Amino acid sequence: MIGDKLSIAMRTTDELTEAFRASGRKVTAQRQCIFRVLQGNVNHPSAEAVYDAARTEVETISLKTVYQTLYELAEMGEIAALDLGTGMARFDPNVEETHHHLVCRSCGKVRDLTVTFDGLSVPPDEVQGYEVNGAEVVFRGLCEDCRLPRPDPQHPSAAMEPAGTTRS
Amino acid sequence: MIGDKLSIAMRTTDELTEAFRASGRKVTAQRQCIFRVLQGNVNHPSAEAVYDAARTEVETISLKTVYQTLYELAEMGEIAALDLGTGMARFDPNVEETHHHLVCRSCGKVRDLTVTFDGLSVPPDEVQGYEVNGAEVVFRGLCEDCRLPRPDPQHPSAAMEPAGTTRS
DNA sequence: GAGCTTATCACCAATCATTGTTGTTTGACA
DNA sequence: TGTCAAACAACAATGATTGGTGATAAGCTC
Ligand SMILES: [Mn+2]
Ligand SMILES: [Mn+2]
Ligand SMILES: [Zn+2]
Ligand SMILES: [Zn+2]
Predict the structure, then answer these.
(1) Which of A43, A73, B65, B135 is found 20 to 30 A from A9 (Cα to Cα)?
(2) Do B64 and B54 contact (CB within 8 A), yes or no?
(3) Which pLDDT value is given to residue A44?
(4) Of A96, A118, A147, the domain-final residue
(5) B73 and B149 inside one domain
(6) What is the distance in angstroms between the Cα of A167 and the nearest Cα belonging to chain B?
(7) What are phi and psi of A142, to 5 degrees?
(8) B134 is in which domain, residue-wise?
(9) B91 CA → C4 C1’, Å
(10) In sequence order, which residues have a C-beta less than 8 Å from that of residue A125 and are 6 or more positions away?
(11) What is the pLDDT of residues B24-42, one digit of tens each?
């Protein structure tokens, strides 16, 4: 039950393992650890955030390995690498469900918006020879934590809460 | 070269000069040069691109000064600093006309889309405590130059192209 | 216009996310 | 088990951007 809905649109670690082997890649403990960190993760973690989570399991894993594996997963189409203007790439294991994002200007938290916007295309007279592949909508604002009237908050730290703990 | 329509929605260098003075800032030859580079500039230049253009007039201007001035203009609301995922901030002197962007995945060229999309808002049940301020739509694709299989020798356009025409 | 104050300047070093290098280790397959 | 390229950890380097710092010059008084 935990993570059932969250992982609806993403491969399991076993499937990723198999996909890696099938494409001639080697499956290491480090990579499997990264798969587990990503599975059902709805926080759009940065490479550093994945690194921190992975290190609690595999203490010696290097940040380079994390970057390598994340971008390999992105090349394979198993995750998406997003640039949402927060200063670091964010990684999204949900690639099966086209969706958009709501980004907190203050702490960088990212929320999924599973909405389809109609009429989201480039007007023909504006195309001017471009071959358009896709559109991303990014909503910006302040999250509940960063919005509070009390300017008390320390650095809200886009931390990685364990997937599935927050019920919605 | 600089047309009426291009500068329709941006301040003149004289207006920027006045705005700087009025806010207690000093107006230097370097800053005025940057104002001129920006005026009517529809290329969404990076700081480096502004730097290169400015240096043809003021050879000794420093890149730091360019960054400083650009972000001061952005703070004053006279230009916009955009992160469009091209690896560098892009600066847009058009701040009066809300519009969206079409970005070339290959060369990073940015084209304005002066379209208003209806229904571009966060569904109430998805807001979840966020205070939403705005939405940006970024279309991605390939521009005419980057799309052609055969290289067209007739478009130097030395503005924002990736340097280093790799031959041999 | 001369002097004063302080913003701005050019130059240089540092930061931060990310990528390159290298020599060693390890997974996959025979 | 041996072979060997792939992957690893450690570390150096990159590229965009930002932080000092002493010198310069804008915008004031007088
Ligand atoms: Mn997402
Ligand atoms: Mn624009
Ligand atoms: Zn926030
Ligand atoms: Zn292009």
Answers:
(1) B135
(2) no
(3) 98
(4) A96
(5) no
(6) 13
(7) -120, 135
(8) 98-168
(9) 37
(10) none
(11) 899 999 999 999 999 999 9
